[in-house]
Amino acid sequence: MRSDQSPPSSTPICDAMRVAGQWNRNWEPMARLDADWTEKFFSMVSAPLNSGVIDPKTFELIAIAVDASVTHMYGPGVRRHIRRALALGVTPEEITAVLQLTATLGLHTMSLGAPILLEEMENHRRGEFSDVSEG
Predict the structure, then answer these.
(1) Is 70 within 8 Å of 109 (Cβ atoms)?
(2) Nearest to 63 by CA among 34, 25, 24, 28
């Protein structure tokens, strides 16, 4: 963390995101606390696109999946990346497929819980109760 007496950090990636309207205001406290770390974080996040490893359409589709995922659910990002994807020629069907695939993240709740429920229902029917302190 830099003090008020230290020179300002160079943050060209974060600055460009602000100018382009891609900056999430929730990132501001992070940037104020450690501008260098924040700059490095966004450099890492944008590296696959900026290096040409993946094309812009693929980047936007992945960004949609990340922002729409059950562990993130960031609506403004989903909207921004859908707009960019459409502008790049991604079809609504392709975006829908990404959203459908992303929705399967929640399936793990059922794949974990349903077998346990069936097992415990059978134990209950038999009058057998496992120790609730397990796990």
Answers:
(1) no
(2) 24
Q: Is 34 exposed, middle or buried (0-12, 13-18, 19+ CB in 10 A)?
A: middle
d(CA 85, CA 120): 46
Residues with Cβ within 8 Å of 61's Cβ and at least 6 positions away in sequence, in order, are 85, 90, 94, 95, 98
- Give start and end residues of each alpha helix (H) in 3-135: 12-19, 28-33, 35-50, 56-68, 75-87, 92-103, 107-126
User: How many angstroms separate the CA atoms of 94 and 83, rounded?
Assistant: 13
Predicted TM-score (pTM) of this structure: 0.71
Tokens in use for 91? 């079809």
- Residue pair 11/37 in contact by the 8 Å Cβ criterion: no
134 vs 123: CA distance, rounded Å: 15
With a cut of 70, which residues of the chain have pLDDT below it?
1-9, 130-135
Comparing CA positions, the residue from 93, 98, 10 lying closest to residue 58 is 98
What are the backbone dihedrals phi and psi of residue 9, each rounded to the nearest 5 degrees, phi first? -75, 155
Tell me the angle at which helices 56-68 and 75-87 cross, rounded to the nearest 10 degrees.
160
